[in-house]
């Protein structure tokens, strides 16, 4: 699949089926940390659908080749090289036995087989299996696996792999073995093994068809008290997939294993999901409400992959969104159903708002920079760099658009047809689209552009009311604006955009909707317009008064809407729109506009002021007890600094910070009594409850506390926060109190109360790594001041005995938090943040290229920044480019500098 002109670039257009297929794999492991021997016996045959190749080329990395045999006889024509093993002139159909050695103890990349906390784990997606044995390590080669594990019984009492346990027993010399069989064909990236000292929480449940299933959550013994929520999330996921999609668990047993050294969130290995501890372990004392919600979402996500990813997998890695976009959509719907059921639109909207915030802040930014790529990329250098917001989050929006177009029932019909056609196959995004199209009798050729074109589409809206004719016309125009070059190259034509719209009367009610040509108004007061041309006009008739349009309801497509609302109109929508998403959106637009104006002033040193009408709009939201607390919390939270900076012609983090802080202080001081009242009213005394209602109260109360910490005189906030810190019976309240104390003290260079709480927090949770991660992160993201720049605190923490660069969670908690979540401090004028960043990328590159490449991305938008910062950013990028070795980091920094 390599391109001859630029050998490092892999292109989608070059896809060719594999010359050989592997039908069965029998793996035997003798597990020893420094020297694990792997014996791999495969049934290999020529692929009838591929062109002939005399030699078999297997992938392999960091392996010590020992021997090869074909049909039981030693095979001399096997040549090991840097990228794998070449076997010359092989027969058409044969049994191949290979023996090789790897070194899990020294494997700091956390890809392949590695040791963490004295136990063995694997991570194979995308290309880690080739670090375990020589193989056709590509997703369109699917085989059934039998795995035999042998290890010291004392050191590794638990031996796990995919599928069903067939046999276990003792061996001489204190060793033992286990043999596992996975009855389903799978690609190598779904292989997994775990060996070590672990214990499990177990449940037996009956699936839809009445079969008994064994569920296990495996952890280190001291973490057993933090597994209940993950287990409940798994049980809920199993029921949800049966009810919503008719998909049943297909194995007798389903295992989740937690590991503290892990590159990402979790991995959907068949029947043996391996999770970052962060997405498994929770109890009220150690995990926040957000952690509880994330665990539910990630457990769901990995479980849902069993059908969308495992039973039907990807033909090649360009199709990654086939499984990831679809599975993110499924986990988002699962979380929404868990929060609000199918009918509670307000509760569902809370989840929708959170998801759209992430999309707009992260994916829109990605789409505007040098890493911009379509949902189905055309090329890559290192596939691990393409597990992106675009593939996952925009991919999920693309799947959601099918559901918006066809309704839940139509979407389900499409899914049913997809499984009917493709169960057990490795397929493409086109196959998915065709299933959706055919099941709904539609031609979706134009819709393919959502997979081909990078960049965030812009839809500008013009409206016209004809009072005499009672006609209201809405003209939509689509384009991409000044997209980044990486996106511009891919743009070819107009998209099919499902554009949901409502019309609101001057007393705040939804008007009936009747399009020109229709005989009567429909019952629904939201209409999904199918917008397919560059410019298109939709005319509503029998419109009795000039309405206010509610545009792109529920964010029906991943686009930017441009419409010239007045501030009064936005305040009106914030108060009245029946679409909860757009109600929130109106507040965000209002706030964004004010904040950007203020940031512009701050950048040029003009004094800042905020109009009373904006304060009044926030006051109404704050005191409106008819709205749910979780909705109010979201509506009262200002857009993030990163999002705001991205909206400026030239990003200026210092100016954005000044503007946002000014508004927060103004809202705090002007509405002091209301914040205090809300703080009191939404306390949740008594035992901790993890329900959405209780967590909504905590969120609103803690938002109030964070505003109170902005008061010119923060004494009262400090008193409240200290009391909350001491009395807290849960991590949500304790960490929110600590954060309020840190920020209230920032302007004065710290406070006794903040320091005491920090010290107490450390002592209290010294033995809980996930909580110590929070301790690092809270300090890295705290507000700084001239006398106390956060970089100094971060540098000091790098030398803390609990800091460890090799553990990705710990590296993320300190370094990533500072570089990606504290923009005002990271982008200090003196370039200190950039120098720090360069040093850390270089250090991580030698340990773990995947983690290093993630960190490398925090400077990719450097060309969009204010000129005073650009030189420092470029210098840091150049330093990294000149020193790093991995393909992962090089792809990122070279694209950034191109
Ligand atoms: N499929 C994995 C991600 C693998 C990332 C490899 N660099 C987790 C997930 O999306 O569910
Ligand atoms: Zn996934």
UniProtKB/TrEMBL annotation:
InterPro entries assigned to the protein according to its UniProt record, in alphabetical order: Aminopeptidase_N-like_N, Aminopeptidase_N-like_N_sf, PepN_Ig-like_sf, Peptidase_M1, Peptidase_M1_dom, Peptidase_M1_pepN, Peptidase_M1_pepN_C, Peptidase_M1_pepN_C_sf
CDD domains in the record: M1_APN (cd09600)
Annotated SUPFAM superfamilies: Leukotriene A4 hydrolase N-terminal domain, Metalloproteases ('zincins'), catalytic domain
Listed GO biological process terms: proteolysis
Signal peptide boundaries: none
Enzyme Commission (EC) number: 3.4.11.2
Record-annotated Peptidase M1 alanyl aminopeptidase C-terminal domain positions: 568-898
Recorded coiled-coil stretches: none
Stored Gene3D superfamilies: 2.60.40.1840, 3.30.2010.30, Neutral Protease Domain 2 (1.10.390.10), Peptidase M1, alanyl aminopeptidase, C-terminal domain (1.25.50.10), tricorn interacting facor f3 domain (2.60.40.1730)
Similarity comment text for this entry: Belongs to the peptidase M1 family.
Protein name: Aminopeptidase N
Gene: pepN
